[in-house]
Amino acid sequence: MNFKIDNLQYCNWSREIFKINREAGLDAVHVTIVYHEDFDELQNVISSWNKHFKENSDLIFLGNNFKDIEKAKLENKTAIFFGFQNCSPIEDNIALIEKVHEQGCRFMQLTYNNQSLLATGCYEKNDSGVTNFGREVIKEMNRVGVVIDMSHSAEKSTLDAIEISEKPIAITHANPSFWYAAKRNKSNDLLKTLANSGGMLGLSLYAHHLKDSTNCTLRSFCEMAAKTAEIIGTKNIGIGSDLCLNQPDSVVEWMRNGTWTKVKKYGEGSKNKPGFPKQPDWFLDARGFKNLDMGLKKVGFNENEVNGILGNNWYHFYKGIN
Amino acid sequence: MNFKIDNLQYCNWSREIFKINREAGLDAVHVTIVYHEDFDELQNVISSWNKHFKENSDLIFLGNNFKDIEKAKLENKTAIFFGFQNCSPIEDNIALIEKVHEQGCRFMQLTYNNQSLLATGCYEKNDSGVTNFGREVIKEMNRVGVVIDMSHSAEKSTLDAIEISEKPIAITHANPSFWYAAKRNKSNDLLKTLANSGGMLGLSLYAHHLKDSTNCTLRSFCEMAAKTAEIIGTKNIGIGSDLCLNQPDSVVEWMRNGTWTKVKKYGEGSKNKPGFPKQPDWFLDARGFKNLDMGLKKVGFNENEVNGILGNNWYHFYKGIN
Known about the structure:
The structure is a homodimer. The two termini of chain A are 21 Å apart. In chain A, helix 8 crosses helix 10 and helix 10 crosses helix 11. By secondary structure, chain A is α/β, with parallel strands linked by helices. Helices cover 39% and strands 12% of the residues of chain A. The longest helix of chain A has 17 residues, at 39-55. In chain A, the strands form two sheets. In chain A, strands 1, 2, 3, 4, 5 and 6 form a six-stranded parallel beta sheet that branches. Chain A has a three-stranded parallel beta sheet with strand order 7-8-9. At the A-B interface, helix 5 of A face helix 5 of B.
């Protein structure tokens, strides 16, 4: 059986988008449900997801483990896996990891762009690595089955997390910096260490992570995937599109500024380009998986490898979570 | 006018202790009201302090600025200044700094022993310095008038804070490491930079910060003060006793472990000595200020210098806060 998985989306969720994901044939989507929310605020987010599940039960359901990806395939639905892009919901309390796992959380970034209580984000000047609390949290995430996601973390912190974690970790949405040296993209050394430890890289389709941004070509993206496969093999590469469909620009402003600064920060954007960037025309939404399928074959991947990148590799990774 | 100030106590507060502080002639005490509490939990702590103020209005009142130290002296009371030993009450929200200031907070440590969102604590392996959020917070603390306290912070973070802050900072309770190389004590370089920037060092009487612990002699302590004065002058030295009178050992366990670890940590203690250490017999409580007065004179300080160390230096520092 082949699976199609997008391992990162943060859309302004609606029935329309769930339909698009079904049209794209996605059997599973890892959805970001938290940026800066604390534990109480998380409860509100989960309530609104319960409404989505109720109102769209013909299209989606909450995924708990890899078997739900198989189930989704059989039922022509999309399994939704919850994830956090920051560790804010666990606050300073290690006991909350088990709680958020019970509530469906399967991926948690140890940091967003800034320093967290657990590790250093990629927008900090210095990176002190995984902290005392971070070590305890990684152990507990391993125990209960929440994947450590280092997409927005700094390099030493990520290497520390790989070393400390007894289970493979993930970079759910980023690209290699050899292709485009964005702060959020990752070095070859890091990607090799990640893959050697069984970790996954989800290639991002977010314009700020792409060479030539919105004008990035399908060919350039797929050549990057081929070069990445030369470096780390084909088995540890997937897709984490970082699609933010229908989100107003106020959301990206909140993602960047939260409540931590009084002076506006532009993150990956700039004063002249403060909002969400446009998607490249060959990946306007998840239906672009079809273009990826063609494009990846064109640069030399065989069918098996393409199926791996477009979903099977993530499926096998999910098998190891619990 | 001469003032007596103990710039750090965390006692199990009762009328008995407020009386002892009056007997010791303390015109002001900076009291720790927070270790791990968040903003909501802080509200409960403040409620219990309001009860203390009401029931002991003949002995104590809430201090807002240096004028309340003068008022306390005239009225034979002790002005109580609130402080936090961690930044947990401001959570991830810069707007809460103004709120906690309104509620009386005048000192806030950027870290307790572990990494915080603002800086690195002295028990971490690596120190990345003041973070992005930390820079914003220091600006805001300067603006509203909350003193940056780096007693439990790592060295680079402390040097960063001194550099970033437009106002002098404080190390309210620690000793020089030349005398006793505890993790919590401070290097000569750091103390020089602190004093050169107008910052204050409050010498600690907590056994874990003392050479020979509980058996430390008054003479040894006062000789340390004299040597410190040789290095940084006499004007930037005060007392921050770190007295924890009548606290059960469960409190020091909570201070060290909070909710961040499932494996018990002993901090400055050890498995065999997990509780609060005993005070040296010449400083069982604040009435030991009398012994300090004698002891400091004995090692060569003149009366003016002793009065500075026992309170006037802190009084002048308070003058610059707002």
